[in-house]
Amino acid sequence: MEEIEPGSHVLAATTLNHILRSVADRNAVSATTADAASTGVLIDVSSTASIADVLELMAKHDILAVPVYNPAGTHADEGPMSIRVGDKEYVSVVSILDIALYMMDYVDTSLSSDVLVGPGGQPSTALEGISIAAVLGGSREGQRLWVAGGNSTLQDALPQLTGGVHRLLVPIGKAHRHHNQNVDYRICSQVDVVRFLYDKIDSDLVLKEKAESSLSELGLINSEKTLTGLVAVDKSWSCQTTIRFMASSEIYAVAVVDESQAGKLVATLSLSDLRAAYKPDASTSSPEGDSPITVKALIPVILRNAFVTVEDFLKSAHGVKDIWELHSGLVVCRRTDTLRHVMRILVGEGSGRLVHRVWVMDEDTGVPVDVVSLTDVIRVLAFPRSEKEV
Prior knowledge:
By secondary structure, the protein is α/β, with parallel strands linked by helices. It contains 13 helices and 14 strands. It has helices at residues 8-12, 16-28, 51-61, 96-109, 113-116, 154-161, 190-199, 205-211, 239-249, 295-304, 310-318, 339-346, 374-382; strands spanning 45-46, 65-70, 83-85, 88-95, 167-172, 184-189, 232-234, 253-258, 264-270, 284-285, 292-293, 332-334, 357-361, 368-373.
């Protein structure tokens, strides 16, 4: 029997539909991921929903983006591309980055003390009164609806998934003429792709060879012990300034270090932390430590007050008294670790916790020297090494 030439090109010909089915089947038997977002059900939201509604939905399902549709009978702008499914006209996918960009722009152009201070002088948020439609198209990814074809393969999707697009809408089923009556859609994300490839490591020799190589051997790590390629901020930095920089640079997370401890990594500040305000049990104390307020009310405090630090926000968002309590939850690796090991961390194998990046630590100092993201993993498995993306 003639041996088939091994190679990742075999996996590259896999359709996105097949990837989604494989991931859904895998998750369906996992108690740790038995959620609508991970078992194949499309979570979406009406364009009439508020920013607060969307943040609450993201927190509930632990997701970073959600498709937005215009309900039947509305005449909202459908944008350069839209798809109709039943009585829903999908016009965009809004991400936590789009929301952060809007928040920062809102600070510059709209917010006043009258909006931010409620009865009795307590902080109040206006996010419940702002439609998510106002947020759409803020980021480069959010400026259009990224839709794959019904037979699109992983190879077809690689230019997008390694070029700044984190997720694609994929049609499930067959269209009936022009009405999409028998078509539904699912999101195929970078997480889905990495999880699929991780499961295939031992069945593809080329993929296995790369997976068993170290991060350094694959060119994923800086050779010098510097922060080049890594965005890090001290815990004392202004949270407003940091989030503004993250949003404008379209960076989803930064490493938080403690310069008083020789720059050791202490925590991660992610745009996803903005969702913490809308968890049912979210409550904390004000940055000054006096009267208790909700984290939801802390958001406008951060927006208005540039002196609230990253440390203040993270302690409030995570309900801890000392920022170093967050250190034990950090997701880290070493230069010498294999790509398989990092992929295992990213897909939550053994932990049930999906992550989007892994900080690379210096073995001797505990200082972060680089970061490996989902984009990096997909890119190194498909293309020669190029510019990294967090």
